[in-house]
Amino acid sequence: MVIKGRKAIVFLLPVLICFICGCSHSNSTSSLPENAFGLHLSSDPSEKVIMSTVNRRVNWAVDYSDMEVLVGDSDLIVIATVESIDKTIARSGFYSTFATIHISETLKGESSPDISIVSMGGYVSYEEYVKGLQEGDLAKQDLNWTEEEKQNGVVKAQVDQQNLLQEGEQYILCLRESEELGYVTVGSYHGIMRIYGEKVWRKENAGIFDKEDIIQSILKAQEQ
Known about the structure:
Layout: E1 3-5, E2 8-10, E3 16-18, E4 21-24, E5 28-30, E6 48-59, H1 67-72, E7 76-91, E8 94-108, E9 114-120, E10 122-125, H2 126-131, H3 137-140, H4 147-152, E11 153-159, E12 170-178, E13 182-185, E14 192-196, E15 199-203, E16 206-210, H5 211-221
Parallel strand pairs: 1-6, 6-11, 9-13
Antiparallel strand pairs: 2-5, 3-4, 4-6, 7-8, 7-12, 8-9, 10-11, 12-13, 12-14, 14-15, 15-16
């Protein structure tokens, strides 16, 4: 599937509290780089175009960039493949992706091989994105899409330039069990590490590490 990008939009908003974090944004418009891995949307096999990218920056109350902290706050850490993207919805100003994963290896905790998870961010249709806007925001965000673009375009909603879950791709996932939602990814980019061959991408197109080094770091952190 081919992905095209038209523009990236990053917003500046006041600091707010969402769950346990505050988030800030900066305004800019720039060209959108091609996603190295491709975009897979199970709901529609036709070509999709990323028309806009919305990236929120989050200040976490804890330092999830510290592997010991990340592992300590995770109930379940697995190597898994995304079987399906089930839905993307708006929650408290953030978009959340609901997905089903198949676990091939467990690095911490126990679970059945196939589970449902929730992560921040996702690919959102024009219709769904507009539903979540405040009155007057549509004009500010330069979403003057044509009818064709509204049908074939998506908004890429990220937090901290995280890896977004994509169907058929493999990840190291750090998950916390929630009474309300089941398993949710920890942090923003921190708990979603994309596997590409023998490498792991901690962020989208950045933070590249050897997969085995990441696995050993996770196992070592549990010994502390």
